[in-house]
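Supplementary Methods S3. Input chains for the assembly prediction are listed below.
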Amino acid sequence: MPRLPRVAELTANSVGWGFFLCSRKEMRTGRSGSYLALLLQDASGEVRAKVFQDVDATSLEFDAGEFVKAQGKGNSFNQQLELIVDKIRRVMPERDAIDGFREEDCVRCSPRPIDEMWQELQGHIAAIGDPNIRALLGRLVAAHGDRLRIWPAARQVHHAYRGGLLEHVLKLVEIGSLLAERYQARRDLVVAGAILHDIGKLQELSYEMSTDYTVEGNLVGHIALGFALVRDAIREVPDFPPALAAEIEHLVLSHHGLRELGSPVEPMTIEAFILATVDDLDAKIQQIRQHIADDGSDGPFTSYHRRLERAFYKG
Amino acid sequence: MPRLPRVAELTANSVGWGFFLCSRKEMRTGRSGSYLALLLQDASGEVRAKVFQDVDATSLEFDAGEFVKAQGKGNSFNQQLELIVDKIRRVMPERDAIDGFREEDCVRCSPRPIDEMWQELQGHIAAIGDPNIRALLGRLVAAHGDRLRIWPAARQVHHAYRGGLLEHVLKLVEIGSLLAERYQARRDLVVAGAILHDIGKLQELSYEMSTDYTVEGNLVGHIALGFALVRDAIREVPDFPPALAAEIEHLVLSHHGLRELGSPVEPMTIEAFILATVDDLDAKIQQIRQHIADDGSDGPFTSYHRRLERAFYKG
Amino acid sequence: MPRLPRVAELTANSVGWGFFLCSRKEMRTGRSGSYLALLLQDASGEVRAKVFQDVDATSLEFDAGEFVKAQGKGNSFNQQLELIVDKIRRVMPERDAIDGFREEDCVRCSPRPIDEMWQELQGHIAAIGDPNIRALLGRLVAAHGDRLRIWPAARQVHHAYRGGLLEHVLKLVEIGSLLAERYQARRDLVVAGAILHDIGKLQELSYEMSTDYTVEGNLVGHIALGFALVRDAIREVPDFPPALAAEIEHLVLSHHGLRELGSPVEPMTIEAFILATVDDLDAKIQQIRQHIADDGSDGPFTSYHRRLERAFYKG
Amino acid sequence: MPRLPRVAELTANSVGWGFFLCSRKEMRTGRSGSYLALLLQDASGEVRAKVFQDVDATSLEFDAGEFVKAQGKGNSFNQQLELIVDKIRRVMPERDAIDGFREEDCVRCSPRPIDEMWQELQGHIAAIGDPNIRALLGRLVAAHGDRLRIWPAARQVHHAYRGGLLEHVLKLVEIGSLLAERYQARRDLVVAGAILHDIGKLQELSYEMSTDYTVEGNLVGHIALGFALVRDAIREVPDFPPALAAEIEHLVLSHHGLRELGSPVEPMTIEAFILATVDDLDAKIQQIRQHIADDGSDGPFTSYHRRLERAFYKG
Amino acid sequence: MPRLPRVAELTANSVGWGFFLCSRKEMRTGRSGSYLALLLQDASGEVRAKVFQDVDATSLEFDAGEFVKAQGKGNSFNQQLELIVDKIRRVMPERDAIDGFREEDCVRCSPRPIDEMWQELQGHIAAIGDPNIRALLGRLVAAHGDRLRIWPAARQVHHAYRGGLLEHVLKLVEIGSLLAERYQARRDLVVAGAILHDIGKLQELSYEMSTDYTVEGNLVGHIALGFALVRDAIREVPDFPPALAAEIEHLVLSHHGLRELGSPVEPMTIEAFILATVDDLDAKIQQIRQHIADDGSDGPFTSYHRRLERAFYKG
Amino acid sequence: MPRLPRVAELTANSVGWGFFLCSRKEMRTGRSGSYLALLLQDASGEVRAKVFQDVDATSLEFDAGEFVKAQGKGNSFNQQLELIVDKIRRVMPERDAIDGFREEDCVRCSPRPIDEMWQELQGHIAAIGDPNIRALLGRLVAAHGDRLRIWPAARQVHHAYRGGLLEHVLKLVEIGSLLAERYQARRDLVVAGAILHDIGKLQELSYEMSTDYTVEGNLVGHIALGFALVRDAIREVPDFPPALAAEIEHLVLSHHGLRELGSPVEPMTIEAFILATVDDLDAKIQQIRQHIADDGSDGPFTSYHRRLERAFYKG
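Predicted structure tokens for the full assembly:
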């Protein structure tokens, strides 16, 4: 039996076995009896899967949140690819390591290596000119490094995978710096905003293999959570100038650009305008690229994108 | 020379002198030369005023932010009442006290006595059943008592006078409690939300005779400021339950009801729905009553209210 | 064979028989042949049901709109509970009465007893101080008592069951009175508005076991229908003051609060503001409570509520 | 002293005397003392006017709502034409008749003669095929003939002059009939809708020389008032078919086309769509023509029209 | 074996064979194996169809875009009619002609004969008074005659069939002329706008049996494409007056009436207002009539229309 | 008599003479007689001015659209700076050249020298890799060079001065290129879009000293005009690939980003998203900087900006 290709390369003709993270497992009842509906992922993406055989016995072999070894074949259902699973069990770490099982291969992941991104972030902070801002960033990044290294940027919309938040942050630092220079805006402020704007997501989302909203994430939201983290950290930097503090908090609070998008205040400085523009652009480009990559339709245009309310030209 | 009536009772026929707080003073140039444009207030309201005589000399006699003694007569200009001032100078406290000058008579003020309101607030807090909530409220109210006693609720829209915030808060406690009981909602949460929802206004607005936005007030806003105050205070109550903390912060953050009105999260609990409803209703009723009181138009309907986009029936 | 629990307590493990009202019955064709798709209800709620066996013969045994005796078992399909029916026939009143069949147990119903609510309504009317308003309410309630006692408040959204309209009206009287007192508004007007605001629903909806829109209900709508009923009744009260008439009609017409929600005029009096606020709050709280009760999802938040566009916190 | 041209032809160079209706008269105080601010009209339009001389004495010579004889000259103030009045007194009917005073020349008026319009309306009603609709229209038009002949269609927006409502109604009958024929819609229904759609304006507006909203007009509005008038009249036509009644009431209620424009129900029949379209088109064309006629700006485009949010091409 | 009725008259009880155009053919995988999902049409409408037997062999017998002979029976699936096909093959023109096959019977088509419509269009152009406009229309219609005769007006929304664009254009000429006359607008301009407004659809849509968007259609859109066609043609009419050119281009660009509906400029002339109104009304009436015709629901109201957001009264 | 400072540095205390372009001149009538209301500009900005003395005679000395020599003093009126002019006459070129008169000093102008900007533009075009795009840009820029060098980008909103369009275009090329590189988008397309997006403004606006809308500018608009210019030029480049043509036209048509902002199609490619984002950001930053520069208010925040609906933080 051959090995299945990575999820991103699965087709209706794929047959074989592979290692995955099972992020969802539900018993459902169809017309011809019960079956298991699963969601499997590896570093390259995720795919729905179904088990129709020996459902009750098979169900005991693994749980949602576990790594699994699964054997099956691709299928096209309602124009979406799925995996019909014949056998599945939880991974036995030692034994399966022989066949090449590695945890990191089974979790959706940023295309950029985490360590490389982390070093880049440290470099950006070291390059900040303003000592107060540099101290603030250093303190916050150190305090939340464990999460910041690996957190996803969202549950679904964009950069929704391991390291996605850091990847998104670094892109914003890169683009934001350029715009700040070209428009003679205060570069340090834009970089600070880029690094801090989504820091509340470390508390808004839980991320343990799979991503979900925390209670606080729903009731308070990442904008207010991030603001509180930043405000607390500012207090710990001795003699942080109050006006600078207000501007940095403003960057975090206004980064969605509009009140109807969840920012309680709207950008009132050039730097806040730049940050909100760059954040929006980066998220949109990632969504469009993802949609084009996922698109299975014929012809030069993708299918309709619900959130962005249009089709895209694939060229 | 007779004494002028209170601002609320001034007419185009009023002639005499009175004590006021001068909250604005600007030199302007009209067709026939310079004049001083003033805003004067007493406990009952505020009125525009103009000085046309001896402008340069008179201007040296007082400044914006000072209490003044002014003599003049009412006038109707563009259908608005104004005061044409003949003489004006800053108050000389000892001397003018003989004529009845008292600071508190010259500042716009809640119709309810401050001490009475303060005691009522203390009573509400003492009546809270949940010890964590009671401790939180006690701590916050004690820490900010100086401001909370006298703060206005807004610069212009509603309850925009000394003690206005406290008056508004107490009304929300009263109405919110009733609704909580009638809908079997958690009364303690609604009361906490009512007391805390606008606490960020203590930092959003500066209030020293006249009211204005602080830098932080504009850049951060009272919703985020209030949330931060509450979050800090919660940390100081030992063993405050995290889920309760999230719910109370949610009450503060969601109290405008809709994202487009500045709440970064929208009500997700019955208690948050009740609070947002009561806050909106109380502010609207105060605005309508104020508009009817200020209205000088003939007939059974008021003039058009810009913010509420309609006229009201005076009956 | 055991008796099935009430609809509200059905689970995927329930097995047995019960009495229901069948409010919908359709023949459908699936991949493996025809089946009957039903909607069954009792006092506690409603549930979808399917008949797969002996479809043609079984279909002759009952019709939509009839009370039925059904035997079957619970099932979970697409995460929704349904009943797989093995046997079903129309109720035989005498015979089934022995097994405990009672019509009123098979129709969705307000949790409050109708007679108790009716007496409460009479008490509220008797307590009205203004003789004109009291006469008007007495006349309208007497004329439409048969319907007003049992009518639902809606087909689906909220209070959509026998007696639901009366239950909703009484809650509005209760809450509206309190707010009127606390805000020194005219209590009699608010009570009149609460009792009359939805009276057009008696003509908008047909209700004979199940609820639907009438032709007039769709083309004219309950707001205009209610206004016409009130206007006609006012004409029959001798010497009813015209300004009072206009205010009461205004309460009915403006009770949705905004033109885009179907009110041709928006509230122009304090009383109309209170009524629209209370109506909205009561409908929202009922919907949230219903949604939380119906919610089958895991975790501290409900599934997404389409109409209210958010999830709710279950605590 | 020459006679002034008609209001529509006044310029900054006009000098002389004329007869007008004075529809507004207010005492105002400017920098150089009191003056009278007037609004004068004749059949062709209206113009602001000011009296600066002998203000107190002159003010006794006439009142708002009276016909006046005025002498003065044109002036351009803030780019708007006004009349600087030197002498003004109330009309002395007999004496001034000699100089050509006629009441009808001094009131803004439809360009079409009232009697001609009235006969045309009677012809349209007589041509209705459906006896029930014909009876209904005959009854309503007879009952309200006095007002329907002379009423304006609005206070300001369009057809805001004597006979304007009738002129607007006849245009809608004309255009609506054509569209009904071309689209095989039921012509009688469209004609009925055209005649009845604004009948509530007879109660919404008061019109005695000048136009204003009644209490009922504000609190109930012409859509509900018109619906009630029609519903009452339908009841008096024996055996009026209920479904036809609902459709006619629907025409009146839905004629603004959208809920946010004040229709509590939106068009659900072809005829209601046609009526709403024609009503909107006729009102818009009248506003555009009026704006072009009033426009004093240079160049091929008019000034900006606030309500329609654009400039128009004058060609 | 009998012949199937026309698509518009198919029911769940229909059995037999017929000729169709197959406009879509997809292989899908269900629970019990693969099947072919088809879309079949004739002059009267279109219907979904499925092939479950001998799928692989059958699939070789025809392709999407070909005329087919199919045999099967009606079925009702999820409340929509479909055809379960037993046999299907591509048409053999000579042989099938004997059984009455004609291409034109198998393509959805305007109810009006194309030649009759074409002559009517020529008559309208000949009747234009302005020689420049007449020359422009003559040139454009001659250059694009092949497409203009047969093009659909849309892929789905309204007049979505052979000759639909011409049918829509002629209705707009008819109604637009009448309104122009009755409102003393420039008839020639309105007629030109009616003929030209959608001419960009000849490039926006591809139409070869079935309709789709072209690359240019998506990226540029019919409004800009039509404007470019008109602008090019104007250049070829010697001495075309520039102001007239701008007005005609304005008609094409503004015909959707509002920017949010895709018009980069909004109507600034009476003629452009009339055109946009008539285009909207004609499209809406066609949609409503189609929806009523397609509606299979019981009772006096149709099912809900998603695009128009309401149900319609069937009378 | 000293020379006045440049307009940008005028204060209420300035006294002296200077050279200006008079872009508006109107006779107005105030309470104390007629006066001339002027708009004067030099390279640094524009200022309102008034002539009160010898109005009739002075008015003969110059016209709107002429260069003038004026003497007067600054004044603050309604918190806006104006110039009270004592003497004014049209420039006598030879004679005034002696005193330093130069046309280019009297017209509002980009801060960057035109020749430098022009060379930069040529460099950008030469650097384009795709020969078709390079040919297209070369052709268009050559054909419209005269206007493109000096045109303003708008009448009022942003870059509303000589050379403003070119300055705006170059900024978009700069920023757009960077973003294209960083996001691996097609740089040539983004540069082409940046250079061409506003080319329709060469026809939308007239610019002869002062700026105004042309007839075509209003009726057709710069988006459609630019699209037509580009489409015509594409036709003249032999063998221009059709798909590339559609993409470039899409860039021009979609550059406002949203239909409600006047783009008939919305961005469907990454490059179009980048262009619309950069155009919006550049215009906003220019407006904010202009508003801060113009702002005369005290305190750390500017006055309210109507178009952007907020105040800005001046820091």
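Chain E has a mean pLDDT of 92. Chain E touches chain F through 26 residues (CB under 8 Å).
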